Amino acid sequence: MDDIPEKFTDTDDILGNKYNKFLVLDYDGWYSKGNPTNKRHYYKCLCDCGNPKTVQRGHLISGRSKNCGCGRLETLSKVGRTHGLTNTRIYHIHFDIKRRCYSENNHAYEYYGGRGIKVCDEWTNKENGFINFYNWSMKNGYSDDLTVDRIDSNGDYEPENCRWVDRQVQAENTRQAVKVNAIDTETGEEFSFPTIASCKRFTGADPKTMKRSNNGQRTRGKWRFKINL
Ligand SMILES: [Zn+2]
């Protein structure tokens, strides 16, 4: 799994960002495409139309490059047929899944990678792992209010064992055993924990914060909590 970054480097700060039609998938390197003295940071991007393209960092951020060249055609493509932010949400979900399973520094690692749970090759493949995951999602009922759920919670992240479900389904599957639910407000994903302590290890939030959030008060950070006594 050498394609999973151990930690972020400075150039990774824009991964997962959306600039016009480009979603930033990966850092490609510091190099020149013409004059050898004129090096730039390049990124592998996915255009809303489904075409991959390597784009200069500066051109992404300034908006000088807005799309792969497809701009005038509002194409009926498989990728990007819904609104643009779908791409970033799925990208973050895909990235989080890989980190849970392969990055020992990740809060959730002990519940996933640490228990031997893996992500299938089709979805981790360096060249088109994200695109495969994206296409699988679109064919299997993805929408922005659903989260990815493993049917067998001891099984891997792979097409046969995953489905997109709403939070009610996820909550019903786990309600009885659960003490605390943590909701990632960035992706809408909900995680369930048997104890406050295990929830704290996963989210980094302290029990006071969980209680405040449970009582409907605003709390810092992306997590919201529901405590079931
Ligand atoms: Zn395009």
Topology (SSEs and partners):
Blueprint: E1 18-19, E2 22-31, E3 40-47, E4 52-56, H1 57-62, H2 85-102, H3 121-124, H4 129-139, E5 147-150, E6 162-165, H5 167-174, E7 180-184, E8 190-193, H6 196-203, H7 207-214, E9 223-227
Antiparallel strand pairs: 1-2, 2-3, 3-4, 5-6, 7-8, 7-9
This protein binds zinc ion.
Task: Describe the model.
This protein is an alpha+beta fold and 229 residues long. It has a domain at 166-229: Orthogonal Bundle (Arc Repressor Mutant, subunit A), CATH 1.10.10. 28% of the residues lie in helices and 21% in strands. The protein is built from 7 helices and 9 strands. The chain has helices at 57-62, 85-102, 121-124, 129-139, 167-174, 196-203, 207-214, and strands at residues 18-19, 22-31, 40-47, 52-56, 147-150, 162-165, 180-184, 190-193, 223-227. A 4-stranded antiparallel β-sheet has the order 1-2-3-4. The protein has a 3-stranded antiparallel β-sheet with strand order 8-7-9. A hairpin with an 8-residue loop joins strand 2 and strand 3 (40-47). Helix 2 (85-102) crosses helix 4 (129-139). The protein is globular, with a radius of gyration of 19 Å. The protein starts with 17 loop residues before the first strand and ends with a strand. The chain binds zinc ion. Residues 21, 47, 49, 51, 67-68, 70 line the site of zinc ion.
